[in-house]
Structure formats: structure tokens, C-alpha cells
Amino acid sequence: MAYFNEHYTEKINMDDLAEMVFISSSSLRQHFKKITGKSPLQYQKELRLQNARRLMFKENFDATRAALEVGYESPTQFNREYARMFGEPPLKDMKRLKADEMHFGRII
């Protein structure tokens, strides 16, 4: 998990990662899912989306810049996955979060 947290912006090869920890890639996937409740790919996707959301909110990145910064190659795919995870597209989510922050204080 620490490796994912440090390298979430990169394309991670599960076979290479499994070799690093001296187990098979299928065993790595099983252990990872047992610990996190998610597949390695799902975990990486959530890290990317959460960090992109933070960049847009705190650093005022636009969605395309945030997507590229966290490792997405396609802003369209990023927008789709962002809306799936957070319930609305990035621009709409940022407007709501910033309005909520004005009313309720610190959000993220």
C-alpha cells in the first residue's frame, strides 16, 4: 500500500510489484483486496481521484491539469470516473464544495 501511495501517478505493473515483495501477482492481488477491500487498480484510481479533487479545491487546478497531474492520460476518462466516485462532474463538484466551505468552513 505504501508503494501505491507514493507511486499512484505512475502506471504500476502488478507482476513487477509482486516480484519486489517475493510473491505471485495473483497472491498479491488477493492479499491486497483482503487488506483494503479493493483491487489494486480500484485503490490506485481512488488515490488519483482524491488527490485530483484536492488539487482542484486547494490549488485551483482545472480538471484537465489535475487529471494529468495525478496520472490520467485522458481527461474524458477522468471526468467519467470522477463523476462516478463523487456523484457529479469536477466543475460542478468544485462549485458545490467552495459554496459549502463559505457556509460551513473547512471542507477538505
From TrEMBL:
The keyword Heme does not apply. It comes from the Bacteria. SMART domains: HTH_ARAC. The keyword Lyase does not apply. Residues 1-96 form the HTH araC/xylS-type domain. Transmembrane segments: none annotated. Keywords: Transcription, Transcription regulation. It holds the Pfam family HTH_18. PANTHER family: ARAC-FAMILY TRANSCRIPTIONAL REGULATOR, TRANSCRIPTIONAL REGULATORY PROTEIN. This is AraC family transcriptional regulator. It comes from Exercitatus varius.
